[in-house]
Here is the input.
Amino acid sequence: MTITAGIDIGTGCVKSVLFQSQDGKTVWLGRSLERIRQRDPYQLAEECYDNLLREAGLKRSDVAYVATTGEGENLDFHTGHFYSMTTHARGAIYLEPQARAALDIGALHGRAIAVDERGKVLSYRMTSQCASGSGQFLENIARYLGIAQDEIGTLSQQADDPEKVSSICAVLAETDVINMVSRGISAANILKGIHVSMAVRLAKLLKAVGAVDGVVLMTGGLALDAGLVAALREAMVTEKINLDVRAHEDSIFAGAIGAALWGAFRHEKLYGRQTLALAS
Here is the structure.
């Protein structure tokens, strides 16, 4: 029996998970999600990890491998670090075994990843850094509109005449939104327009990595935005992509899940080599 942890330090949140692996089977032991909100992300990650262990009735010494991803490479108690692209790919396959692509949409960027049945990355593409297709951009717009983040998806789906947002620059897109408000465009139509704009761009990323049929799983924080999920499904039709867009209730943990599972794999390989060395 092997217990591993995965810690994903993102721009907006710290996600932590605990897994137990035995005989090829994995079992959840716990998960934790905390928004950073101007706190020190490394201190927060350590606090979250210790709380997770306490809730599971475990000590640090019980964990065979602590794997980090995202910005977690400098966490001083980690065992190893994995690139977020590979952890999201592996986490996507764990959450949705039929997936052959992952669409990771976080606070700062969107990323399309083509994967095989084992979670191996085949190809990937990212939005540009200044693109208005990110969680931070949506959060800024919601704040300007006086809307809570968890209301965005519901409001977007109530739109009756979405207002197009053409700019790919976040700063210019925010200026567009200010102009829309001054013209009396409803919050629902603004949000749906933003979702549609984001969805078309993300659909083109999927095309670029060769993901044109099968199942794609949304990962990252915006996977829980029902309005964006709906807009992506519509974009699959308009862009003539035969993809089944899915989201999972644990999609936001995909990076941490993938880190923990890759950590278990690496530990098994290292432990096996050490055992063989001692036996010889």
In short: The chain is about 40% helix and 25% strand. Residues 275-280 have pLDDT under 50 and may be disordered. The first strand starts at residue 2 and ends at 9. The longest helix spans residues 254-279.
